[in-house]
Amino acid sequence: MSHQLTFADCEFNGKRRKTRKEIFLARMDALLPWSRMLEVIEPVYPKAGNGRRPYPLDTMLRIHCMQQWYNLSDGAMEDALYEIASMRLFATLSLDQAIPDRTTIMNFRHRLEQHQLARQLFDAINQWLSDAGIMMKQGTLVDATIIEAPNSTKNKRGERDPEMHQTKKGNQWYFGMKAHIGVDAKSGLTHSLKTTSANEHDLNQVGNLLHGEEEFIFANAGYQGAENREELADVKAQWAIAMRPGKLKELKKHPRKNKAVIVFERFKSSVRAKVEHPFRLIKRQFGFVKARYKGLRKNDNQLAMLFTLANLFRVDQMIRGWDSCVAKCEVNPEKGG
After folding, report:
1. Count of C-beta atoms within a 10 Å radius of residue 28
2. How far apart are CA 193 and CA 69, in angstroms?
3. How far, in Å, CA of 282 to CA of 286, rounded?
4. pLDDT (tens digit, 9 = 90+) per residue, 91-120?
């Protein structure tokens, strides 16, 4: 979609140095399969007709993506569109036309939640990655992370979110929810997601994280006994679950005697490490460290969108890695093999 740029926007585009935000948004603009994503939302998006003309769907989707990348509330996103030229241009907007206000941005998010469209986007993008041969099916890594929620009771009901619960990890208590994920062992991309309250045991969700074509499954020590559970009896994959830390510590007291076991545990840890990357992306790169909304449904919608964008971010990392390797090989052809 083209639009008329203001003089300020033209001057911004012509400056000598590009910021990291501009570079990132340009890469995402080129990478994201916008047409596929728009196809998912278009059937339920308002059409032009009676009443106020809706903003272009492409613009609203781009704004929603930026909300996730930069962890912005609806109001903060509106302010950013006025203040930050690179964000405004990414959304195909300019200051000589109307900018979506916080209510419009909120209503778009509510539409995604109402129709569970983030889940559909998650599935559509993963199918696109599978068709491209980027996401394989040989192995799955499973894990879960706790995401804290506000525990304040200063609200109309005078109580905490009833869909969130507390759980103990180590010697510390947490109140919130859990994101359970299944990750492709080859690429490190998330292929399945389940959102529960924080007190849900990790083992209870394993069956929801497998696609059924796995040849092997890697998990940490918290999943001990998964292969013996009745609901997982039909899983034919080879299980590789980490040994409990206490038992491994005892074996390491006699390293020569237990060398083979220790080496195998290190191998399992090295493979399983990829499951931590999606968590790092949404928490550290995108800044999602605390639930913003009440209820599991709204938060599941946001998590599905975050992991969708994390998968695409990971693909961008792989592309940059390949480009770097190609550049090095062109400079030093003898090292290309």
Report:
1. 18
2. 19
3. 5
4. 999 988 899 999 999 999 999 999 999 999
